[in-house]
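tool_call: predict_structure(chain=1)
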Amino acid sequence: MVAIIITAIVSLVVGGGVAVWTLNSMSESKSRKIMEDAKKEIESINKNKTQIIENAKKEAESIMKSKMLEVKEKFISMKADLEKQVSERNSKLQSQDAKLRQRELFINQKQEELNKKRNDLEAVRENLNGQLELVEKRKQDLDKIHKMEIERLEALSGLSAEEAKDRLAQSLKEEAQTAASAYINEVMEEAKMTANKEAKKIVVQSIQRVATETAIENAITVFPIDSDEIKGRIIGREGRNIRALEAATGIEIIVDDTPEAIILSGFDPVRREVARLALHQLVQDGRIHPARIEEVVNKVRKQVEEEIIETGKRTTIDLGIHGLHPELVRMIGRMKYRSSYGQNLLQHSRETANLCAIMAAELGLNPKKAKRAGLLHDIGKVPDDEPELPHAILGMKLAEKYKEKPDICNAIGAHHDETEMTTLLAPIVQVCDAISGARPGARREIVEAYLKRLNDLEQLALSYPGVVKTYAIQAGRELRVIVGAEKISDIETESLSNEIAKKIQDEMTYPGQVKITVIRETRAVAFAK
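tool_result:
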């Protein structure tokens, strides 16, 4: 404010000087008047200037007082805050100081306890050292006594300690071998006495053994084609044809680099047959598109279903079996598309039925019932749905559902010993099922898997010490093992055959049973010159 007032005064003074200079150039009369007016204005300005300066001073003093008051208030506030912080810090320091004192007391107490324990340990250590010295002294005395006793025994027996140990070990070894051989002979005699009883269980378990090598034959069908150009037509634009075919049939169609062949993969043989026939018609017709695919698949599915029913009816007529429920007839027809260990299920069932009839007639039983039970014994393998049940139990439930007689239902359910046999038909069906599955040539095996199994048999026996040569004969049903006469004794050959048989049973998969024959011979060779 003061600066503004001073600036105004200076401007007025400068303006007055300019006005005086202007008057000199004017006329005197006018200049006097102007001078008088100027004097009056200057006097008025001087009065105003003095008043403005006083007002400015008063205002400046007022502002200064208010600012001083603000500064004092701020100083008092800051001082209070600072005192508060100082008091808080002092209280924290006091709290920490108290904690440190308490911790120091605790540490001093622990130190005293440690010192006390250290003193106790020193006392215990001194006591133990004394006892150890006593034990060591007694040990030395015992060693002297033991040495004297050994020398005395050696003098009495005339043998050294090492010779006595060797004789004792040899004696124990011979005794153990004799006991082991006697025990093995006893077990073998007992096994021979119960052989007939155990043989049935072994045969059933062997028949039910899974042949994993033939699984691939039961899961795929190879569809031959004339040229690889047809593969592109089957796939279709952006794969729409092959997707439509897979959706309609439920079968995975594998089109790979295999020349002139397409693989149909699926667990259901009926679906694979529908896919194969549909694909055959589509390739012959040449029109392959989604709408045509769906039409052909539905048509082929109806044809296959009709063929299944016709096959079931023809089978029952050929065997002379009448009065079967239509659903059982349809299941018999489905057996045509199912195989077990490479053996066609329908052919196996027909063969089992004929064998059952012959055996029942020889025993004086009803051959028609036996033939009926033999034909139906595996229907549990071909249901529309696949519940988690053994096929024998499932077949028995299906036979009960479609009003078959109780003795036939029991024969179906008991042919794998999964339920108790209550009629004479049950063991007949069980035996004929085993005969049909075990006869030579009934169940085929992949050539590579067959050769590998024979080679594995020979190599397994060769891994035993003392074995010179091995021969797998009779299509792998017998293994002959030639051993060196100088390496293995007659008693050891029996245990060797048992060990090889056990190892084959634990580590290998095979149909039926394998006979292990261990041959040991002594040859004397001389030359007449």
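agent: The CA atoms of residues 23 and 32 lie 8 Å apart. Proceeding to next step.
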